[in-house]
Each structure stands twice: as C-alpha cells, then as structure tokens.
C-alpha cells in the first residue's frame, strides 16, 4: 500500500489550482515510464514552483505591510502564473500516483493528503536545498524593493537552469508528457524574468536583471531569453526558444542549487 504522506511540494501541487485550469492538458500525451531520477525531478520542481509562489507572496506582503510599497510583479506572477505552474506539476503527480515511497530526495514529509493547502507552512520545504534557497532569498528580498525584484530575477534563472537539466533527463527517458509540461514551466519563467527585468529598469536600474551580473557560478544576465512563450525575437535581436543559460551547476548560497546536492536523482 502506498503511503498517504507526500513531499510538501508534491502535496501542494495535488491541492493547488483546478485541474485543466493551468493551460496545459496532460491528457494530450501518452503515459511514460518514469525513472527514479525523473520522479525526483518532478518532486524537485513541485517544491521549486511552490517556493516561487511563497517567496513572491511573502515579499509582496512584507513590503506592503512594512513599507507601504506595492510590488505588483510579485503579486501578479504568484497569483496568475505560479498557481498554474503548481497545477501542472500536480497533474503529473496525479497521473503517476507518486508518493514518498517513490522519492529519494526528500526529508521527512510535512503534511498528508487531507491538509488544506492554505494550512501548509509557507516557506517551509522538505528538500533541504529548496529550504536553504528560500531562506537566503527571503532575507535578501526584505531589504528593499530593488532587492525583492532582484530575488525575482534569481528565482526565474534558477528555475530555467533546473528545468533545462530536467528536460534533458525527461528526454533521455522519452517521457514526452513530462518534457512538454516542463517546457511550459520554462516558457513562463522566461516571461517572469523579463517582468522583473522591467521592474528594475523602472526603478532606474538600466541593466535590469543584468545588474546582478554573475554571483558564484550563476550568471543572471540573460539577453538570450525569449521575450514570450513563442520564442519571439527580443529587443536585442536574439531569438531563442530554449534558455541557453550555459550553467547547470548552481551553488547553494541562495543563488541557485548545486547539481550535486539539489535532489536531482538519487542521493
């Protein structure tokens, strides 16, 4: 019998959002055979998409309450997009009935299937690398409006780098449904990156997300990212339907995740 306790990120994907309300229909694709590494990838992205929702919501509320500043990018992206992203991962979890028995990259699960999503502890995760990332980014994001927007850039680059890696994993397994679902998540992250880039430029940071430069081994300047999900040519004349970040090794200092410790595959 499968356990009813799941990873916190997976549980959230099971309960957040309405089925088929996320703009992606998993039923258009045949079921695949998931490797252990790919199951862990799904768990990891479930946690990471929830991190994006949580960090944007919590930073929005912090700056509204403490500084009387409304950072609309945070609210809009979390409520209009990250919810849908969580729903996409949720659909994959439901399709394969993934449980904690199937995963090797989570610590002690934090909730069960009966836990209401709004009763789950925001900003708490059962994959250590995700927890460390959230803590560091939250500490940065509360410092100022600029820092909060920079956190947005950092989250989206992290998502894209991880999705690039996990899409390769899914393609190697010929798991078309997971590949296409992850591509939808990545397309959304491209859009979010440019939204945060614009927000920084509106604050007078002429280089937008590129003002972060390279921190550790992570490059946060990505003029190569397409400006919409269709790979439309961006303002610099670059056209790219895939985020060629050139960096799949992320550090664990809140600037990304180390590929040797981020829960990819078996630990």
Description:
The structure is a single chain. The chain has 267 residues and is mainly α. It has one domain (8-109, 120-219): Up-down Bundle (Ferritin). It is 50% helix and 3% strand. It is built from six helices and four strands; from the N terminus they run βαααβαααββ. The strands form two sheets. A two-stranded antiparallel sheet has the order 1-2. A two-stranded antiparallel sheet has the order 3-4. β3 (214-215) and β4 (218-219) form a beta hairpin. The chain is globular. The relative contact order is 0.17. Residues 1-20, 112-116 and 229-267 have low confidence and may be disordered.
Given helix and strand content, the structural type is: mainly alpha
Q: What proportion of the residues form beta strands (DSSP E)?
A: under 5%
Q: Overall 3D geometry?
A: globular
Number of strands: 4
Low-confidence stretches: 1-20, 112-116, 229-267
List the total number of helices: 6
Largest sheet: 2 strands, antiparallel
| CATH H-tier superfamily | Ferritin, core subunit, four-helix bundle
Helix fraction by DSSP (H/I, runs of at least 4)? 40-55%
Strand arrangement, largest sheet? 1-2
The CATH architecture designation is Up-down Bundle
What would CATH call the class? Mainly Alpha
Search tags:
Ferritin; 4 strands; 267 residues; disordered C terminus; mainly alpha; disordered N terminus
Write the layout of secondary structure elements.
Layout: E1 5-6, H1 8-15, H2 36-67, H3 72-96, E2 111-112, H4 128-141, H5 145-172, H6 176-202, E3 214-215, E4 218-219
Antiparallel strand pairs: 1-2, 3-4
């Amino acid at each position: 019998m499968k356990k009813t306790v799941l990873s916190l990120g997976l549980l959230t994907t099971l309960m957040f959002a309405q089925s088929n309300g996320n703009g992606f229909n998993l039923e258009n694709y045949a079921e695949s055979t998931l490797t252990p590494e790919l199951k862990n990838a799904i768990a990891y992205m479930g946690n990471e998409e929830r991190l994006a929702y949580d960090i944007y919501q919590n930073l929005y509320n912090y700056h509204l309450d403490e500084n009387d500043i409304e950072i609309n990018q945070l609210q809009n992206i979390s409520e209009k997009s990250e919810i849908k992203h969580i729903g996409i991962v949720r659909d994959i979890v439901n399709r394969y009935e993934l449980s904690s028995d199937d995963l090797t990259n989570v610590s002690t699960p934090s909730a069960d299937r009966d836990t209401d999503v709004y009763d789950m502890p925001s900003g708490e995760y059962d994959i250590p690398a995700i927890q460390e990332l959230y803590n560091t980014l939250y500490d940065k994001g509360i410092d100022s409006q600029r820092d909060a927007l920079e956190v947005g850039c950092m989250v989206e680059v992290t998502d894209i780098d991880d999705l690039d890696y996990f899409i390769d994993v899914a393609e190697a397994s010929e798991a078309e449904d997971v590949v296409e679902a992850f591509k939808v998540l990545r397309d959304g992250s491209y859009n979010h990156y440019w939204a945060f880039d614009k927000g920084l430029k509106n604050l007078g940071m002429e280089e937008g997300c590129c003002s972060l430069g390279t921190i550790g081994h992570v490059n946060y300047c990505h003029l190569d990212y397409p400006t919409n999900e269709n790979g439309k040519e961006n303002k610099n004349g670059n056209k790219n339907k895939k985020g060629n970040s050139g960096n799949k090794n992320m550090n664990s200092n809140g600037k990304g995740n180390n590929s040797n410790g981020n829960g990819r595959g078996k630990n």
